[in-house]
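Exercise: predict the fold of this chain.
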Amino acid sequence: FGASTALNREPEAIDLFCAETGAALAEAIFLVGDRLAPEVVRRVRLEVERRIFRPYLAFARKHWWFTGPLNWNAVCNGAIAVSFLRLCADPALVAQALELALEGMETYLATGFEPDGGSIEGIGYWNYGLMYYVVLGEHLHFATEGAIDLLGDERLKKIARYPFAVATEPGKYLAFGDATTDLALEPGVVCRLAERTGTPELPGLLVPPQQLEAKGISKMRLAMVVGDMLWWDGRYHDFPQAVFRDCELPDCGIVKKVGRLDGAPILLTALAGHTDGHHSHTDVGSVVYSIGGENLIDRAGHGMSGWVLNWKGNFRKQRYDTLFNNSFGHSVPRIAGLLQKAGPEFGGSRQFHGTILGQGERRGGKYVELDFARAYDLPIRQARRSLDLDPAS
């Protein structure tokens, strides 16, 4: 007796799983609580209050993710805010929690995306963070009759177009950073984001319903399941032609050039970018070359070590000891025997970065020129890569 266990000690922190579990339980009680045994409802309320409500109201700003420039911010703040809306009967406490959550969400929108709308974290974390941003936004939009309108923010229009820059075919994306090549976007969230930002082609990125679970859609996130039922018509839309247009995201450092080979699309995508960020790789100057959805020059992605659950060193200094994360595993050179340098503490200064020197058309073809000398901790003046694409080859 008296031992400190998970069931009797006061929680020291709220993490992703805790926040999402609370949101799922709160949604369940809100929807079907009157059909459950009273002791089950009481236990859920007790545990959510003990593990989420009290520590969030007391220590929200002390959590490292509270105003972090990454998906944790939106997932934790958003899931917790949804839990308060669904489960807390005290309006004053709900208002206090929402004030905190909106403070965190503003930082997420301002720093979790580049000014061009892109995500350094990649498509998977774009999808993950926006799940809770959109769901919370629509809860508040409905509850306040439009007075609070998170999705009305002009920045969302650029953010909603980011997937077009990194998609290659339905359910497949360029694996920049820790992103995965196979992914299903959350249907209801995508459809709502498309409608509210005026991006009608966005639902065309959704995979057929029978592929959702295999490509990562979890039924555990009950708020998302409800959103799917409310906002998604269940149809498979035409794949967007926006994917097959040249584009540049100058702040992310992504340039994509498009051509055709016997009718099949050719995508030449280059990354300048920087090595800061929670899910970044030291991959400045890397290239992906795709024909008809097959990547001939590819990236390893996150590998088996890419998930913090599989490798505790993934977000510590050992992160760049693996070739999946360091530049040895990417299409960039070693210079003077050295690999590219990781950003200080995984973020903040863009000390090690690349530059898009130019891109466009010349001599009947398309080109991209990058300089990635500043991605190395070396006294070198330039390290350049010039890429040319014949769009009709």
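Check your answer against the key: The first strand starts at residue 167 and ends at 169.
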